[in-house]
């Protein structure tokens, strides 16, 4: 899937962000840290977009309670942040709190001794975090990151109006999905909207299909670098299933020119041109913003990805982005590290932050929300997505986040060629196995 850097700023409302914005904290009165963090004072960088006000409010609350130790806060657009944080960590000039996506990124930080081992130091925040998500912040059994925002499972959205009009059953199995594809192709409706120009939405298919067919262990072998791990039969079957969808006309003939960042894939659904869309939970905000009547009129349905016929994977498993994470810079002075840990335990994902996320239709990565969600404006969707996450035996991090940068880019390139019919599954497997040797 597309790197979370780009998704995170769009997660709540699908709002586009400028190239670079820096803002100082309102309440602390402390000058921003400029090119990097100060080891002797609290500093933090976060992302612009829908969640910015929530983060700012949390740091303001800390500053009010700790006026002698305020946060210096800067906000960056996602791509700018990604480049800047990499440079600052490499130079030992990172902010105290490091916003990250876990996976390969966090492993690199740990390997370079850039972040603090938080094991046993953040039990308060972990006690009310969703356990399966909190574990994503572990490296080699030790805690180096804690969740700081919403969980983002990948959902199969569908137009209830089109399904009812054409007498199609919302698919819960692969056979039902292919039946739905055939019915909508016959009706001259694109069965599934796909933003192929963006490429990263295509990852959702290989992830879910591999999991449904072969189970969660298939990708675990890839992560551990097992020789020829991409040769697992489940990978080939997943690729063949993708080819089956393409050949059946599931994505129409123009998916290669559709971009996700502008919400063009969601627009195909709410304008009646496409019947389904496999996308992250963040796209619910896009539907709500761009087509409020479509959402309010119960025309938007949602499902987990269909089960594979005879597959070994649990159909309740989920793929996507468990959350974003805070880590603590190892370059900060010890007393500043302790202040940051205090913030994580007392202010991060507290009741105020949870309420703020829920208000924007986002699902905080915390436990025991079941009774709170149904009464909210977006309660139906929030309850559905929250149940997906809570009941998932396994929540698989987006492959392009779990893998190191170079193999992740190879994955995107080769997968795009599969969807475009430019590469055979066997060639994909060979190309990706080569990344295990590099």
Distance between the termini: 22 Å
Low-confidence segments:
2-34
For the largest beta-sheet, the strand count, sense and barrel status come to:
7 strands, mixed
Q: What fraction of the residues are assigned to beta strands by DSSP? A: 5-15%
Structural class computed from helices and strand pairing: alpha+beta
InterPro entries: Bact_solute-bd_prot1, SBP
Protein name: Extracellular solute-binding protein
Pfam families: SBP_bac_1
Organism: Brachybacterium tyrofermentans
Task: Briefly say what this structure is.
By secondary structure, the chain is α+β, with helices and mostly antiparallel strands. Helix content is 43%, strand content 13%.
Structure write-up:
Pfam families: SBP_bac_1 (PF01547). It comes from Brachybacterium tyrofermentans. The chain has 438 residues and is of the alpha+beta class. Helices cover 43% and strands 13% of the residues. It has 20 helices and 14 strands. The chain has helices spanning 4-8, 52-65, 78-90, 103-111, 123-127, 131-134, 160-165, 174-186, 203-214, 217-223, 233-247, 264-270, 283-290, 292-296, 334-346, 351-359, 379-390, 399-402, 405-419, 425-437, and strands at residues 43-47, 72-76, 97-100, 138-139, 142-143, 146-147, 150-159, 190-193, 274-280, 300-303, 318-321, 325-328, 363-364, 395-397.
